[in-house]
Specification:
The chain is of the alpha/beta class. The chain has helices spanning about 20-25, 50-60, 75-85, 105-110, 135-140, 145-155, 175, 195-200, 215-220, 220-235, and strands spanning about 5, 30-35, 65-70, 90-95, 120-125, 130, 160, 180-185, 210. It is globular, with a radius of gyration of 16 Å.
């Protein structure tokens, strides 16, 4: 049975995989999720580092683990692959950032063709974390999700530490050696689908898949997403 480790995006946590994990299990795939440091643990956001988030992913992986990163999760999963490429079988980017050496998440977001988060976030008084405004999050993240699911998500989203996302990543041959796949969400309102295609352009074409969903495919269509992941696992 394949082992999947699911890594959440900004302001989310392990809770966001609630519907996908049982859908994967029904297809014979074992899946588990972790909370990245600084998410719901009471930590001072200023103390959370990119290196720490990468180590959390690496420590939760085994040589048979396929690590899936959503959105910002593309950064820590990539950094974990650079730390120890033997600690995982492969990477799946789910409408995620595929970083380049020397870039930060904030830098990549600003370099994107469209700035989708204008007015959608607010910083804490210390400017060490940001949160999504509840009046804008539904249309950005959950526009094709059941209303009760969107409500569940809004009850659980938490502040996102800024420091890890403002830290340039270091990537080299270790990261390059890990097999990778990309799932592009064509109805995404957070990371433009065209930008996702650009970031996935360096991957083998047969490992890049389009999925008709928003930035939250795990809530919008968990069964369809599980079916696609099952297919990708066979190819990695």
């Amino acid at each position: 049975m394949a082992d999947l480790l699911l890594i959440h995006g900004s302001c989310h946590g392990a809770w966001c995989w609630r519907d996908l994990i049982p859908a994967l299990a029904a297809r014979g795939l074992s899946a588990r999720a972790i909370d990245l440091p600084g998410h719901g643990d009471g930590r001072d956001p200023a103390s959370v580092t990119l290196a720490e988030t990468a180590e959390a992913v690496r420590a939760a992986s085994t040589p048979q683990t396929i690590v899936l990163g959503h959105s910002w999760g593309g950064f820590p999963v990539s950094a974990a692959a650079e730390l120890d490429p033997g600690a995982m079988r492969g990477l799946i980017y789910l409408c995620a950032y595929v970083p380049k050496d020397g870039t930060s998440l904030i830098g990549m977001r600003k370099a994107g063709p469209q700035q989708t988060l204008g007015g959608a976030t607010e910083k804490n008084p210390a400017a060490t974390a940001y949160s999504f405004r509840p009046e804008t999050a539904p249309e950005l993240f959950y526009h094709d999700c059941p209303p009760e699911t969107a409500a569940y998500a809004l009850e659980h989203i938490c502040p996102q530490p800024i420091r890890p996302q403002d830290t340039p990543i270091t990537l080299g041959t270790s990261f390059a050696s890990v097999p990778k796949a990309y799932i592009r969400c064509v109805q995404d309102r957070v990371i433009p689908p065209g930008y996702q295609a650009q970031m996935a352009a360096g991957l083998p074409p047969h490992m890049v898949h389009d999925f008709r969903a928003s930035h939250s495919p795990f809530f919008a269509d968990p069964e369809g997403l599980a079916a696609l992941i099952t297919q990708i696992v066979k190819d990695l």
